[in-house]
Amino acid sequence: MAVRFSLAGNAAERSFKDQVERAALMEELGYHGIFFSESLMSGLDPFQVLAIAAMRTKRIKLGTAIMTMTFREAVVLANQSATLNEISDGRAVLGLGTGDGTTYTMARTAVPLEKFEEGTRVIRELVNGRTIHIPKGKEREAGEIPLRAGKFPVPIWIAAAGPRALRAAGRVADGVILGCGFDLGVLTWAREQITLGALDVGRDPGEIEYVGAGIACVDENGDLARDKARGRLANRAHQNFRFTLETVPPEERPGVEKFMKHFDVTKKIDQRSDPALVTDYLAQRFAIAGTPEECVARIKELEHAGIRSFLLTLPPKVYYDVMHRWAQTVVPLFS
Predict the structure, then answer these.
(1) What is the torsional sign of CA 274, 276, 253, 165?
(2) So what's the pLDDT on residue 233?
(3) Residue 254, in any domain of the structure
(4) Which structural domain range is residue 124 located in?
(5) What's the confidence (pLDDT) of residue 11?
(6) Using alpha carbons only, how large is the chain's radius of gyration in Å?
(7) Coil, strand or helix: which one is 35?
(8) Domain for residue 213, yes or no?
(9) Number of domains in the chain
(10) What is the mean pLDDT of each run of 10 residues along the chain (335 residues)?
(11) Buried-state track 294-314, b at ≥16 Cβ within 10 A, e below 16
């Protein structure tokens, strides 16, 4: 399988026209997919934007990364994703997570992992054409009910970084968005957790797609590319380390703890950390940034480790520039 590159869209852009045009341009440039997150109260609804993008494109995958069950019932997400899959003729991907920035902005908490896993099972049954059990209600007897609309199946990707979430993903996901970064040792550990979860329920771990996720920035000046990536990767690193530092080497822990202590979630996404606190360890773990040659070398290293699908987030201020450069200097070498 060739290496495939998908990009996260900018969910906070308020113009649906700009977002749809971006999807069409990504398809033209050879990207595999475009993924929108739910940015409630500050961005457009991803399903509606992706549905319009489906009418303007023919090949590119159209996904969410990520949606949560904080604001949407599992059956609603199943219905929405199956509808998008029909509109796009089978190009939809449903990316899910327990909670992200929008959850905390709205003063909610992440969905408990057990409830999230059960909700994902409900969605999985429905978008694969199977039934779910509905208990007895005032107007009906207990029984099985299918999803009667949309196109099946819809792949489900789960964003996971911690051990419990990774094992849950192994039990119920078609793909795992590896939020733990690009460190080879951590990726090996993450795949071991996913494998344990898959084996728990008799699944073949080989059926699960592993999606490397993080920040990307390419420039002929490698130091400039790394500097541009630092602001955006700070938020990704903070999300990963909110609950545990168990994957941080002991010698790097003081720097990471200092970074976490001074991270300010109340500021704009690329201004939440002093760039000087984003250590070289964090930059290397959560970003692929540098010259075209350096980025290609990192991708080849990860490909050799079994990662052939990537979901990349680009620095907002240079989004289009990096999108074009990556398509011109990196993508052709992995087609």
Answers:
(1) positive
(2) 92
(3) no
(4) 4-225+287-334
(5) 54
(6) 19
(7) strand
(8) yes
(9) 1
(10) 90 78 96 91 90 97 94 96 98 91 73 95 98 90 95 97 95 96 96 98 97 98 95 89 89 96 84 91 97 98 97 94 98 94
(11) ebbebbeebbebebbbbbbbb
Three-state secondary-structure class, residue 66: strand
The sign of the dihedral angle between the CA atoms of 57, 27, 23, 214 is: positive
| 248 in any annotated domain | no
* Domain assignment of residue 257, yes or no: no
> Ramachandran region of residue 41, left (φ > 0), alpha (ψ -120 to 50) or beta?
left
User: H helices of 5-112, where?
Assistant: 16-29, 46-56, 74-87, 101-105
Contact 316, 270 (CB under 8 A): yes
Strand partners, 8: 35
C-alpha distances out from residue 21 to 49, 55, 108, 287, Å:
11, 11, 33, 26
Nearest Cα residue to 309 out of 36, 1, 5: 5
CATH label of the domain that carries residue 208: 3.20.20.30
Q: Determine the length of the chain.
A: 335
Q: At what angle do helices 16-29 and 319-329 cross, to 10 degrees?
A: 10
Q: Position of tokens 């540098």? A: 290
